Amino acid sequence: MTLMPRSRSERDAAQPDEQGKSAGRALPGGGESGEQQSGGWLARRSRSRPRSGLRKKGSLREEQIWVPGDPEAVTPVVPGETYPFFAAAVVLAFVALYVCYRHSYLLLYGDAVAHLAIARRILDARWPGLAQLGGVWLPLPHLLMVPFIMNLRMWQTGLAAAPMSMLSYAVSVAGVWRLARRMMRMRWALAAVTFYALNANLLYLATTAMTEALFLAIFVWSVVATMESIAALRQGDLTTARARMMLAGLLILCQVFTRYDGWIIGAVIWLCFAWNLWGSEPETRRRMRPWFVLFTVFVALGPVLWFWYNAHFEGDWLDFLRGPYSARQIERRTAPPGQHYRGWHNMGWSALFFTRTAQVDAAAWECGFGLMAAALYGLWVALRRRAEGAVRSRGEAFALLLWIPLPFYVYSIAYSSVPIFIPQLWPHAYYNSRYGMELLPALAVFAALAAERLEVWLKSRGAAGARLIGSLWQPTVMMLCVANCVVMMYSIPLVLQEAVVNASTRMTLENNIAFALEEMPKNVPVMMSLTNHVGAVQSAGRDLRSMISEDDQQEWNKALKDPAHYAAYVIAIEGDPVARAVAANAQGLAEMDVICTSGQPCAHIYQSLLYRPGSGR
Questions:
Q1: Is beta strand 547-548 parallel, antiparallel or unpaired with respect to 64-67?
Q2: Is the dihedral of CA 280, 283, 286, 287 positive or negative?
């Protein structure tokens, strides 16, 4: 359907100018209009006085009309083009939520339960406030859950995290479309976004309190903003360049407060901007300098604030790196004495574990090998053509930022005590398999780029059979994307498998403790370590402010010295700080029950014979 221009000025703008050139002029951020622009919604400003609904240059929305063009052209998106993909992704997210909620999958991950508890204790604690955020996990996901977490039902079911994760998934799908359209033809961008959106592991994570869906959304859009800003800078469109630069700065700030991957990604993006500004014209540098300074402030602000937070509330500015709950200390406590996981201080093994995990996360059966090979070929294609004028004008080379998680996690596995275990590799266990999801955007985009190159090659052959296969290649890839999702769901995707396996004994113990908590009065303090089993309090529907735990360090330290005077009831799980406190000072405690579960330490429940309201103060 063709929408004709609605005013004389619009008709005039569609005609050749007085120099005889086509109306197809370069658009901000790359791409061209007229004969060089593929058919789609084309943003175009009228030469007449702008109407009230028309936004300024550099904004995310401008007036649009539909014009015919070359379907084989590679062009950036125009406003309005990404909305259908966002809407479709929202629908998919609701379907995934229905399935996962119905099968009680939302709280399988212990980390998901812990994220919900951190968000809850910001408002529900003996001393509520931002100090309850803790010093290891970054705070943005918890802050986004706060508006929903005080609803008891949403906390107990895990639905308090659903708005954050579902919208993040939809936003990331729209971002992959916007990014892929700058690199390949529309039909292959559709293949890339279909493969990404129908990933069964991502659909599961989009319903939980885990941070992967949120981080992928911020990550993808920070790459998009970088591409569009530098493309506009190269074309002299400084209004668009600085608007996208500011957007990239805000997204980097959000990345830094979501996952530690974002710290490295933010630094690399800053270097990309600095390099391109350094190579620009002196007048461009002068006009962009104040905005680049502000962008630098955004990039540096996140780490500085997190260092200050750790120093102020945890007493060590590097508590997240070397504190008792850091990855390094957890690995030391859980690993057998003198032993380390495979990949420790070995870059080769760590690369194998991460890339193999990314393959299994992205593709069904053993198809991940082919997917990885295709993505690497697509990477080679992108590197070869990065110097072409049209490619440079679109800022296509900055899609290479999608590969940053690869060296980051290879280094982290080798030297930062971040093990990954998957059943395909020894010791054939499940741990941190979701980390491979960080490479999903790169695999989706660059594998589609390789598939597009194969189509071009087939259609260039003289044989009719090859041209026929080339014509059917894209629909075949689309069907394979759908089949990949179906097969992954049928066989249970890896990330969900890990959650199911690791949750079985933990949830049994927590449910049994929850039954005991429900029998205790709601208005008396209960002493219990919540580091590993806060899910018991969540299942019981008990307020966190009624618990004496690590959340209030001052009262916790006093109660460890004299449990019977500070708590009406004490729940000690063998090996935890409460169990050691009871062993050191059991006077005034009467054992009520012992809960033992296969694969978990036993929990001993005591009633205090000495507690009186206010007796411990």
A1: unpaired
A2: negative
